[in-house]
Amino acid sequence: MPQISVRNVSISYERKPIISEVSFDVEKGDYLCIVGENGSGKTTLMKGLLGLIPINSGRISFGEGVKANHIGYLPQQNPAQKDFPASVFEVVISGCLNQIGLRPFYSHREKRKAVENLIQLGIIGLKNKPFKSLSAGQQQRVLLARALCAAEKVLILDEPVSGLDPIITVELYEIIRKLNQEGTTVMMISHDVNAAVENANKILHLSRNSLFFGMTGDYLNSEMGRLFFLGGGKND
Prior knowledge:
Blueprint: E1 4-13, E2 16-26, E3 31-36, H1 42-49, E4 57-62, E5 71-74, H2 88-93, H3 108-120, H4 136-150, E6 154-158, H5 166-181, E7 185-189, H6 193-199, E8 202-206, E9 211-215, H7 216-221, H8 223-230
Parallel strand pairs: 3-7, 3-8, 5-6, 6-7
Antiparallel strand pairs: 1-2, 1-4, 8-9
Helix pairs in contact: 3-4
């Protein structure tokens, strides 16, 4: 059974249809990139999958022991995030909040997990620094470490490199690829179609008029993929 199965899902916003009859599966170990023009519903779909907004129809189910509240989620950065009044460690360990239940404190296991993720992302030296004092690239690594604290098996990323300089972008893509190679299933919304086809094994292309879901090689050979890829995405 797939880790995530989406069947004929439709979502509206203020009575306006955004997503219509979308179906796809995410298997264990997949690296799925979601691409498409602005307004095609990429973020809306992810929020529906995570239960952050209601779906109008269809079905979203989880298998392989995956639970909705154990999926790590890195949303698009917003100005409010940049001024978190907390230390790096406090931001990272807050990713464990959905796992502590009614306990009023973090366990040793959760504290250890936060430290391990800081080490894994090469930012353990920032552990006690104020989050708001960090550079944009450092903040994004911290937020990725936070998402990993929530992620048991699946990591969902919404434009994780948006606004980052080219060097930091390459570094972050390498980190995400390594996490996937080590067993984490990755779903990533991206405007960077070149990075999408380079890293992902599957592509979901949302469009107002059509949809593609399949292997990356098949996408590149499809009419939709050829037009979108050769056009550089044309969605900024």
